[in-house]
């Protein structure tokens, strides 16, 4: 039988909110440079997420793994090409070069504009069907390099009570732009030379391909929303900000 003190410890841990990690700075809502401060804090926090903060619900973003049920599948294997991107991983999220934040406490909306020198994303890629009339059946790794991307995120927050005031994310909007997009399929063709040539041809259309696939960015919205929500669940509003 577990002792009473075990349950007491459990009770206290479950009910009480925790403070931000000591390495995360706190900003004062009542100061005029609040948004600048928040941008800096989030920037620093991203830098620190090269390791996880499990007690804050934050995973490491060194190799950010988007949940495996996030899958983009389109096309038709009988008439055309069925394509599937799955198992997304992002590299570079911990190294932004510029982070801007804007928090509106009237509408509880947080806008983030985070720029990076580069972000690599890697997925599994499957294609089945025909190109021209040539049958295709491929499973390979796809790697994309976003050159100087900016991630624009809008988090709609809602306040709720749970023995203290907390925020939760009720909606996330994600939009990204990038200066260039370089792609590589590790093995599109069995033949090395053909693989190289195909990748080179695809790369010439990098910007066009980025535009064509841009709508797929909605797949990342639950991921970013969930990431932020993990922290908000654990830390009371008064521990997030001063002057609230
Ligand atoms: C592919 O599309 C055609 C035409 O819309 C449809 O009849 C067929 O069932 C589809 N095949 C598959 C495998 O989805
Ligand atoms: C950060 O990245 C943005 C977008 O890629 C770029 O315009 C800007 O010059 C960079 N800023 C710094 C301080 O390097
Ligand atoms: C920041 O992101 C918001 C929301 O997507 C967008 O409306 C705004 O134009 C962005 N600002 C900059 C400087 O990129």
From TrEMBL:
Keywords: Signal
Highest taxon in the source lineage: Eukaryota
Any single Gene Ontology cellular-component annotation: extracellular space
Signal peptide start-end: 1-17
Keyword Signal applies: yes
InterPro entries listed in its UniProt record: Haemolymph_juvenile_hormone-bd, To_sf
Protein name stated in the entry: Uncharacterized protein
Species, as recorded: Zophobas morio
Organism phylogeny: Eukaryota, Metazoa, Ecdysozoa, Arthropoda, Hexapoda
């Amino acid at each position: 039988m577990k002792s009473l003190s075990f349950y007491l410890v459990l009770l206290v841990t479950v009910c009480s909110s925790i403070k931000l990690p000591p390495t995360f700075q706190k900003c004062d809502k009542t100061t005029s440079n609040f948004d600048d401060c928040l941008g800096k804090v989030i920037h620093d926090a991203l830098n620190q997420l090269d390791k996880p903060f499990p007690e804050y619900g934050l995973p490491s973003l060194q190799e950010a793994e988007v949940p495996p049920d996030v899958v983009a599948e389109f096309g038709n294997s009988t008439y055309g090409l069925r394509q599937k991107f799955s198992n997304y991983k992002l590299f570079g999220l911990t190294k932004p070069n510029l982070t801007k934040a804007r928090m509106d406490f009237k509408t509880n909306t947080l806008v983030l504009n985070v720029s990076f020198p580069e972000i690599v994303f890697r997925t599994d890629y499957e294609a089945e069907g025909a190109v021209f009339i040539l049958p295709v059946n491929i499973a390979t790794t796809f790697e994309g390099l976003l050159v100087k991307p900016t991630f624009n995120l809008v988090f709609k927050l809602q306040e709720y009570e749970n023995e203290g005031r907390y925020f939760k994310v009720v909606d996330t909007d994600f939009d990204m732009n990038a200066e260039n997009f370089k792609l590589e399929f590790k093995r599109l063709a069995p033949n090395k030379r053909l693989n190289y040539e195909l990748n080179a041809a695809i790369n010439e259309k990098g910007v066009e391909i980025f535009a064509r696939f841009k709508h797929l960015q909605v797949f990342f919205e639950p991921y970013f929303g969930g990431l932020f929500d993990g922290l908000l669940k654990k830390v009371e509003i008064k521990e997030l900000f001063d002057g609230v």
